[in-house]
Design goal:
The complex is a heterodimer of chains A (201) and B (190). By secondary structure, chain A is mainly alpha-helical. Helix content of chain A is 64%, strand content 0%. In chain B, helix 6 packs parallel to helix 8 (160-189) and helix 7 (131-152) packs antiparallel against helix 8 (160-189). The chains are: A mainly alpha (201), B mainly alpha (190).
Amino acid sequence: MTDMSKFADIHLDPGIIKRAARGDVRAHEIIYRAFSAPVYSICLRFTKSPAQAEDLVQESFIEIMRSIAKFRGEAALGSWIRRIAVTKSLMFLRSAWTKRGQPLADGWDDVTSGEPASHGISSHPDDALDLDAALANLSDVSRTVVWLHDVEGYTHKEIAGLMGKTESFSKSQLSRAYQRLRPMLGVDKNIQTSGAAIGSY
Amino acid sequence: MSSDSKDEEMICALTADEYGELQRGLRRLPETMPPHALWNRIREQAEAEGLLQQPLMRKRSTWYAGVGLAAAALLATVMLQPTVDLEGVVVPQETQTNIVEPSNLQALMVQSRQLESDLRALPAEPRVARAGTVATISDIENRIAGIDYQLNDSEVQMTPGDREIFWRERVRLMNLLLQLRYAQAQRAAF
């Protein structure tokens, strides 16, 4: 499995990071310009709400400003920023789940299924619309797990750690999500019947 | 995140073909740009919390800066044709940096100019369009205009590294804009 995350493609001059650590506003703006789109995209993907995603982007970049002096460069800057954005987004989702009085449990699908797919991502090339809509119709948990696993490249163990759940939880959420996404994948039936199923856990 | 351990994980519920299709689909999903004003909100909060240093005022008194700008403007007049984007907004003068900065910066500028040319080659925007698409296009254009403003602001003193980042971001946004306009043109054609 490859990491398809856009974060990995962005590289900044180490000098900019040093300047940012000193509170240089221009350096922070450069970091923001470089990473705002992937950070906003991930927040929007998780929350489905542009207003909430904007708040999370703001929180994430404020956190980056607070913490960048401690960034040692052991991991790529993009990975570090992504971690902040993911953590902020999951904290928000947990908070939202808590407010709604629902535990983060396997049965979450039953609570959220059928919610409308209004997530603010309204303008994409047509070939992406179906998948976008299908993702939006997944439960918050399933969509988050799909994104973390298949796009950001997190392992089930890491997802479990981020969500405070078990690896089995992450795997079962991914499995459910795949089952829901399967009808719209549009793979030729002849190919599909000849293709081997990828098995189970 | 070790891909090694991920390889051992099983992809349940999908065939290999379906999984491949899903991966391709996810890869095609475009990024979404945040609203243009969001940086100002973040900056205001950061300044209120004392996280940012106030930029020092720079004096513009050195004679060689004026000479440099004049030389750059002359070179720009000779080398570059003026370009105008779809909205009639003047696209940045690709000027001073042509002279002194690294070849990858030059490549980004050429790429940016090519993308502008590709954009101009598309049919005019349809009179009836999806509101979301129009809003996104407008947002991207605003972001590009913001970058252009900074690239062309003589008060701003950027390092070559900074300048390259801005140009790279400009190319990325132009690519995004081109994709959206292309999709829009395709829809209008049917």
